[in-house]
Amino acid sequence: MRRQLVKVVKGMPTSDGAGVKLKRVIGQPSMPDLDPFMLLDDFRNNDPKAYGAGFPPHPHRGFETVTYMIEGQMEHQDSAGNRGLLRDGGVQWMTAGAGILHSEMPKQTDGRMWGFQLWVNLPSHQKMVPPGYQDIQSADIPEVVGKGYRVRVIAGEFEGQAGAAKTLTDVSYLDVHIDGGQRVQIDLKGQEHAVVFAYDGQTKVSTDESESETVSDGDAAILKGEGAITLYSRNDARVLVIAGAPLNEPVARHGPFVMNTHDELVQAVEDYNAGKLAPNQWEFLGRQ
Length: 288
Ligand code: MN
Description:
It contains two helices and 26 strands. By secondary structure, it is mostly beta strands.
């Protein structure tokens, strides 16, 4: 199937963690998931009261969480002993795998905090891999600069440039900056599910089939099928292009766990309650 525009979704206001206000793009009623992506949040707040409580310790199993900071500082700590400071333009790619507990807490008391969190599902044979963590500083994210555009390659590949993150599955994560009046073509080989999320300005999203939709700040275009995507912006704009090959496996999800079957979900909850979701689980909670 040639790539088609399926629909445009708007981020839905909600809150998560200890009351951080955010907009949920994927993982909401009108877009529950886009295999393999289970969630995409835009947390963007100028008011410390709307973000100060952060994301205190909580568990995950069966997938990966990817946090991309645009502005602000958050400290990450996890039960595997990792600790890192997420700063402007940096990315943290965390593989929860068999189980991890982590916290993400603001290290700022004023000013804007703005970032995105993506959940990347793992196939059944990788759900129980040991947890992993990649702390990627902004300066280590390669950029491809072309006529009227700049593409930060967080994961996957663009114009032969490999992304900064090592990924377990076939996914791309691009931050695309387009100058006014310019266009850029993004070829996403084999990655049949794609989301183009506008986070600054307005961008026209077109397929090879000459379909097009315009997305404004906070909107996401959802695309399925094979073929390139062309982005055009009348004025300067920034969008995230996130794409992946669908896993095509059953999904059983409950809160912070994403598994294949109900029994595996029950097991995750039992393991967490017994302190066995991750090594050092109680020790990590006790330290917080
Ligand atoms: Mn989390």
